């Protein structure tokens, strides 16, 4: 397991660790309720430096990556980011990624454990283009801020008034003597900002944010609480809700990850055909479980027929403390309120629209 650069700081804060994709993450700090509340009412700080990063350089870097992902890259403005999927010739996912377009290179930000897989996929199709792939995880750290006081915290640590960042907009800055890149990330809540930090400067930036945030109600936020927020927001995660047999449209990635106006890319024909057909046989949706205990992978039935399965399960404060889940359900059973039974029976669960309503 690859340890976090700030393992010793998290250990001092009584962090409990677990492994995700072969990399260490902080599960929690014994403050799950406070961290969840801070993410909604104050500010929460999460160490996401377990994510993996590829760097692409060369004259053809943009056109090459444009032909490899479902999202627009050619016309992506320098200084912005985009969310994309990488799919094989059958339209099934290799991974998902956030692409940062900088003046001299592209950064590809992926889930832990998928960096080597993504690099191998890209290198397979890198033939005559002037583009080079570099492993860059060791160069970059990523800290995630959530909550309505994020702006006040960034104002305090940068010494300048922080103007809110739209989703995927970027802004360079200086924090604790480090040159950082601020990236709007509002997938989970409307104030989210990711702070890209040179890995050597992670400790200084973490300490500066923690110290300045003390008067703003800042709480360190572990991976398990981040997962709770993710599921409540209806956001799928590759490796949990999406795997190498998932077609992006099944996970409802179309609006955020797929450009229908760009040129050809690997797997485009399958995606275009499925889009033209107008529906997938199954789709990711929400499930209300009440007090029913069920694990990811649990089969869902309607009568005697298997209609889907669960992928993520959490206990949701926003839903009155009941368990809620993400899962795939057949198109004929997607209507919110539809009752399904778990494979072990006889408990029933209800289909719910995403995101879950607070």
Automatic annotation (TrEMBL):
Keywords: Transit peptide. SUPFAM superfamilies: Aminomethyltransferase beta-barrel domain, Folate-binding domain. Signal peptide: none annotated. It comes from the Bacteria. Residues 6-254 form the GCVT N-terminal domain. Residues 282-356 form the Aminomethyltransferase C-terminal domain. Coiled coil: none annotated. It holds the Pfam family GCV_T_C. NCBIfam families: ygfZ_signature (TIGR03317). PANTHER family: AMINOMETHYLTRANSFERASE (PTHR43757), AMINOMETHYLTRANSFERASE, MITOCHONDRIAL (PTHR43757:SF2). This is Aminomethyltransferase.
